[in-house]
């Protein structure tokens, strides 16, 4: 029997029990505690199908078995409670994928139980990645179409707000672009516009998604992945070969206190040269690397001794100042970042506990304050005075990464093992 990737759309569909809302707690912790946990909301009708990203997007990889949470967490009422709290606080966009199994199914069951009007929330999913290794990535038109149809069914909807090609780098040949992506920026911008055969597969996949977009099944089409040079190369090719830029592009772990390559050159290249309409940034804690624990055991940075050990030194430095690396990293990652056209870059965050979501909202509000119009100047001055010391400490930590030679350093993706697997 030929190999079939574990989450390929031709695999049998698993059964996930629906939520019984009457048995699920709805306590104080399930509600925003005040204005410092409420995001600004876009004014639009529930029948309006425009995609208006909130400042924070809830990443739902935490609803996948063994990714960031254990199976018991995924099977509990916590996913529903987290989504409900997010909606109550103004986070109304949810990022999922078939790879985060069974996240799409769980999310569909959640919204079926909560019964919000479809136009009040955004469903963002992906196609192409159905397992951990290069051979599990399938971007042919038939698989993409099946995958979109399955996602629509799983999430009980007739349209998806955004669909990305997921981890496009896995089907491309070497190099994997480890090191500082800024070193490759000029080379990518000046590379020829003739696609390789592997790149052509991705361009055809974008056309497949755009065909589904014309049918009204998808509102926005984009790409998602890790290596910035590869994302830029494909975004440029899409624009050069079709005359139309991508609607949206998502990268991760590239706007952090350790690696800010996005704001240091790539954001401008994506929007100005590749004509990407909206850039999205995920993982301000770099998938757990910038935490006290150092992230999950599978984290790719654990294979790079100097990078990993420097994050441990930074963590200790934070503790010496009575702070946590999480606190400082989130503050850095949540600072406002705007495209040259004025659009804000939304940030994708994941939470496995309700308190994590409360903390995330407060931390975002801390560096994105709103001021009373009549006292704006005075409040702004006071805020900047209080924020000055925090910025100086962030700069000190950035310098620690610089001194060790790992500032803006990206790991190889996919790894040699994933290419061969």
Automatic annotation (TrEMBL):
Classification via Gene3D superfamilies: NADP-dependent oxidoreductase domain (3.20.20.100)
GO MF annotations, alphabetized: D-arabinose 1-dehydrogenase [NAD(P)+] activity
GO CC, one annotated term: cytosol
SUPFAM superfamilies according to UniProt: NAD(P)-linked oxidoreductase
GO biological process: dehydro-D-arabinono-1,4-lactone biosynthetic process
InterPro entries: AKR, NAD(P)_OxRdtase_dom_sf, NADP_OxRdtase_dom
Record domain NADP-dependent oxidoreductase: where: 56-366
Region: Disordered, residue numbers: 1-22
Official protein name in the record: NADP-dependent oxidoreductase domain-containing protein
Organism (species): Kwoniella europaea PYCC6329
């Amino acid at each position: 029997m030929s190999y079939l990737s574990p989450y390929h759309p031709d695999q049998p569909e698993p059964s996930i029990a629906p939520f019984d809302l009457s048995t699920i707690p709805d306590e104080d912790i399930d509600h925003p505690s005040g204005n410092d946990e409420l995001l600004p909301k876009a004014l639009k009708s529930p029948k309006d199908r425009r995609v208006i990203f909130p400042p924070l997007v809830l990443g739902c990889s935490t609803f996948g078995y063994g990714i960031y949470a254990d199976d018991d967490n995924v099977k509990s009422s916590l996913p529903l409670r987290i989504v409900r709290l997010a909606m109550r606080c103004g986070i109304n966009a949810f990022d999922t994928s078939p790879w985060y199994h069974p996240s799409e199914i769980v999310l569909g069951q959640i919204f079926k139980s909560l019964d919000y009007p479809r136009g009040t929330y955004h469903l963002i999913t992906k196609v192409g990645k159905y397992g951990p290794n290069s051979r599990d990535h399938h971007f042919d038109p038939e698989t993409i179409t099946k995958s979109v149809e399955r996602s629509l069914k799983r999430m009980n909807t007739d349209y998806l707000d955004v669909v990305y090609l997921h981890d496009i780098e896995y089907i491309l040949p070497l190099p994997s672009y480890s090191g500082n992506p800024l070193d490759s920026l000029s080379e990518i911008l000046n590379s020829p516009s003739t696609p390789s055969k592997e790149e052509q597969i991705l361009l055809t996949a974008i056309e497949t998604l755009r065909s589904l977009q014309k049918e009204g099944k998808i509102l926005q089409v984009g790409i998602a992945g890790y290596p910035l040079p590869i994302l830029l190369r494909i975004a440029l090719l899409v624009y050069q070969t079709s005359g139309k830029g991508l609607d949206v592009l998502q990268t991760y772990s590239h706007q952090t206190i350790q690696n800010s390559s996005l704001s240091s050159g790539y954001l401008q290249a994506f929007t100005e040269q590749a004509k990407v309409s909206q850039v999205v940034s995920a993982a301000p804690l770099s998938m757990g690397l910038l935490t006290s624990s150092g992230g999950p055991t599978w984290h790719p940075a654990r294979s790079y001794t100097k990078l990993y050990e420097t994050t441990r030194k930074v963590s200790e430095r934070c503790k010496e100042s009575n702070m946590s690396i999480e606190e400082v990293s989130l503050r850095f990652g949540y600072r406002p970042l705007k495209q040259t056209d004025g659009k804000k870059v939304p940030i994708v965050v994941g939470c496995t506990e309700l308190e994590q979501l409360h903390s995330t909202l407060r931390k975002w509000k801390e560096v994105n304050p709103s001021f009373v119009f009549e006292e704006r100047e005075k409040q702004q001055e006071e805020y900047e005075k209080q924020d000055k010391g925090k910025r100086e400490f962030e700069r000190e930590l950035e310098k620690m990464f610089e001194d060790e030679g790992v500032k803006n350093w990206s790991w190889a993706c996919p790894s040699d093992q994933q290419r061969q697997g």
